[in-house]
Amino acid sequence: MRTLLLFGDSNTHGTMPMPNLGFAGRFGRDERWAGRLARLLPDWEVIAEGHPGRTTVHDDPVEGAHRNGLTVLPAILESHKPVDAVLVMLGTNDLKERFSVNACDIALSLERLVRVILGSGAGPGGGAPGVLLVAPPPIVEVGCLAGMFAGGAAKSGALAAEIAAAADRLGVPFLDAGPLVQVSPIDGIHYGPEANPVLAKAFAAAITAHFPG
């Protein structure tokens, strides 16, 4: 059985749309897109490494340095190796106003993460895991997270093209989640329950196509 690692943020974790900042709801294991994906890929062990608040390469001065994806990625790869493929869907939290980065910088940060994966030796036989790089859908500044992500909506509209260009430079497959799902109108960041089966189906098709075994 091959191993697929899902490296992402709260939308990989399964966080539900937040009506207020104290809300901590999470979709049930079987309802999350990660759980649905596992059922669609019976020949794969699907490992969901989704951390709410995770950034690409930034220590978060408010929510904690442990949310830096670059810092934790090597340990995660080592703990699950051999890893046949990694689905990377990050960048949304980089849109927070506190980080002051644009879409190009976010894509370059994702490129750095992918280079870490490709150079990790965490694949079968000490080789490189495959990578599927996913652009998250654009955000909306609404609800309890609007202030935190002020200015992020405009940046997010340019993110898919920048991430696609990064994937092309790296020679790894790319998938744009933007045409598939939309963020919830409740908080403008997280996905409603209707997105879970759509993402699972699209990701399963992409994994099967790009990593046929």
How is the secondary structure organized here?
Elements: E1 2-8, H1 10-13, H2 33-40, E2 44-50, H3 69-80, E3 85-89, H4 103-118, E4 130-135, H5 152-156, H6 159-170, E5 174-176, H7 195-210
Parallel strand pairs: 1-2, 1-3, 3-4, 4-5
Helix pairs in contact: 2-7, 3-4, 4-6
What are the salient characteristics of this protein?
213 residues, Rossmann fold, alpha/beta, five-stranded parallel sheet, 5 strands, 34% helix
Name of the CATH architecture: 3-Layer(aba) Sandwich
Shape label = globular
Number of helices: 7
- The share of residues in helices is 25-40%
Tell me the major beta sheet: 5 strands, parallel
Number of strands: 5
Query: What is the strand arrangement across the widest sheet?
Result: 2-1-3-4-5
The count of domains is 1
Arithmetic mean pLDDT: 98
By CATH reckoning, the class would read Alpha Beta
Rg over C-alpha atoms, rounded to the nearest angstrom = 16 Å
Residue stretches low in confidence (pLDDT < 50, at least 5 long) are none
